[in-house]
Automatic annotation (TrEMBL):
Pfam families: Response_reg, Trans_reg_C. Gene3D superfamilies: 3.40.50.2300, 6.10.250.690, Winged helix-like DNA-binding domain superfamily/Winged helix DNA-binding domain. Residues 123-218 form the OmpR/PhoB-type domain. It comes from freshwater metagenome. Coiled coil: none annotated. One of its GO terms (cellular component) is cytosol. Keywords: DNA-binding, Phosphoprotein, Transcription, Transcription regulation, Two-component regulatory system. The lineage of its organism: unclassified sequences, metagenomes, ecological metagenomes. This is Sensory transduction protein RegX3.
Amino acid sequence: MHVLVVEDDPTIADPLLAGLVRAGFTVAHAATGHAALEPTDADCILLDLGLPDIDGIDVCRRLRAASAVPIIVVSARADELDRVMLLELGADDYVVKPFGMRELVARIRAVTRRAGPTPEEPAELIDAGALQIDLRTRRVTINGTEVELTPKEFDILALLAADPGTVHTRHRILETVWDAHWYGPTKTLDVHIASLRRKLRHPEWIETVRGIGFRFESPPVQPTE
């Protein structure tokens, strides 16, 4: 699924784009209203209202007049009148900043489901050799045997296993699994990693990269007898 992010602030746009890629989407970025109004093959548009050239409300109106693509307004404007006006202009949803990445991903999937099937849905199964992770049912199995995980343990494992061999920083994991504005103790992550390793019974699958974060190493498929 292809998502167009319309956001002029790089400190917001960059982590947002990275989070969407980690969630399985392909992304494009427009930093101005004029760029957002260019023809696009996006399946969903995330639209910030505070653009430098055209007010986001006008951009929303013009996008809707030209296309039926789902539009989610992402803005710091929390006024009810703004929300009502934008929904009446054709926006499909409205998310107030700051927001959590998991909530945003859920909203993207919800509006695109309502709009109809898309040709490229994010993968719902992570096949990592002996380890299988079903993102739809949130079930984890090792060689066919189900492993019971807490919601946070599941989210950490899914994030790491979706990109085996890649080092994920502690900050990125906390930002994605907990919240983009997480300010709690980072020791929380170590506790969850330790529990996850114990439940998987293969601690070597989640490697600690000292001073940086963690990396997932794909387990081999267990040979059948």
